[in-house]
């Protein structure tokens, strides 16, 4: 009997230890997700709570496929994500290569490199909103003082310039993610293949192209997976800097979701948009994961 009780206690102990985390995940994650999924199948409006009881099936999703505003925001989100990820990768790679060649003060530079990612996206948004302001912005004042322009440039008013300004702020804040992970890859890279390539007469570009770059690409795809989730959910910087304007030219999926759900009170339709955006994030995550597996297989690593 005593042996049975001890065996039963040994089996229950892990469940008891995990139960706080399981209950937290249930009430904080699972139940809100199920509730939002249900409301996406209803015409739920914040101003009319009784509409949550009306089930309309996939009507919200079908309506979105013919909504030009949704597809415009969807396309901008894809463009925003593609440009931001590629620029961050190239800049992060350059920074990582430069820091890897420095022999003095490397720890200090690595610490400084991490500063931008420590700031809140809202704070970064306000910072760059002030920098790109067409009246009192630091950038316009500097350009006019240097004689480069004779009038203020409407960075946050012109549609194309406003998108450029948002991408610039996003890249400034998050390039360090790529730089840190790529630098970790450079630190982990074995020296024997590099020395063998130099002995065989390979130049610096050939060593980088055929040895260094393939080795650090798994680290790059990890960074892209992390950043694709962040950029696909971009809201703070866009909301602070432009609010989706001018005339919706910088409206991304999550700013459109917030406007639809909270300003227009159409919460059911907003939740349908949110689930489509979630599917987009999952698709990008799966894409980069397959690239990561392929890169590891190319380097002879485990899948």
Features:
mainly alpha; MetI-like fold; 303 residues; single chain
How does this model look, in words?
This protein is an all-alpha fold. It has a single domain, classed as MetI-like (MetI-like fold, Orthogonal Bundle). The chain is 74% helix and 0% strand. It has 13 helices and no strands. The protein has helices at 2-39, 59-64, 68-101, 106-113, 115-118, 121-131, 138-145, 159-188, 192-199, 204-232, 236-241, 253-263, 267-298. The mean pLDDT is 84.
Q: Based on helices, strands and strand pairing, what is the structural class? A: mainly alpha
Strand content: under 5%
Number of helices: 13
Q: What overall form do the CA principal axes indicate?
A: globular
Main sheet specs: none
Give a summary of the structure in a few sentences.
The chain is mainly α and 303 residues long. The protein has 13 helices and no strands. The model has no long low-confidence stretch (mean pLDDT 84).
What's the structural blueprint in terms of helices and strands?
Elements: H1 2-39, H2 59-64, H3 68-101, H4 106-113, H5 115-118, H6 121-131, H7 138-145, H8 159-188, H9 192-199, H10 204-232, H11 236-241, H12 253-263, H13 267-298
Helix pairs in contact: 1-13, 3-8, 3-10, 6-8, 8-10, 9-10, 10-13, 12-13
């Amino acid at each position: 009997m005593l042996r049975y009780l001890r065996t039963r206690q040994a089996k229950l102990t892990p469940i008891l230890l995990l139960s706080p985390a399981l209950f937290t995940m249930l009430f904080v994650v699972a139940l809100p997700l199920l509730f939002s999924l249900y409301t996406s199948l209803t015409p739920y409006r914040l101003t009319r709570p009784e509409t949550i009881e009306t089930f309309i099936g996939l009507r919200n999703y079908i309506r979105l496929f013919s909504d030009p505003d949704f597809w415009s925001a969807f396309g901008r989100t894809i463009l925003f994500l593609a440009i931001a990820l590629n620029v961050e990768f190239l800049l992060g790679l350059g920074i990582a290569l430069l820091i890897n060649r420095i022999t003095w003060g490397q720890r200090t530079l690595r610490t400084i490199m991490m500063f931008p990612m420590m700031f809140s996206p809202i704070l970064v948004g306000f910072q760059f909103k002030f920098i790109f302001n067409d009246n009192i912005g630091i950038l316009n004042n500097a350009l006019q003082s240097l004689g480069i322009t004779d009038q203020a440039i409407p960075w946050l008013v012109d549609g194309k310039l406003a998108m450029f300004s948002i991408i610039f702020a996003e890249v400034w804040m998050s390039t360090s993610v790529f730089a840190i992970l790529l630098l970790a890859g450079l630190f982990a890279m074995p020296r024997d293949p590099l020395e063998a390539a130099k002995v065989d007469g390979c130049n610096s570009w050939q060593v980088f192209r055929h040895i260094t770059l393939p080795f650090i690409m798994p680290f790059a795809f990890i960074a892209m997976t992390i950043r694709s989730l962040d950029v696909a959910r971009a809201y703070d910087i866009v909301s602070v800097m432009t609010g989706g304007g001018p005339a919706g030219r910088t409206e991304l999926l999550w700013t459109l979701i917030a406007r639809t759900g909270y300003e227009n009170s159409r919460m059911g339709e907003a939740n349908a948009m949110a689930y489509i955006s979630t599917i987009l994030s999952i698709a990008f995550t799966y894409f980069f994961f397959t690239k990561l597996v392929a890169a590891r297989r190319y380097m002879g690593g485990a899948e």
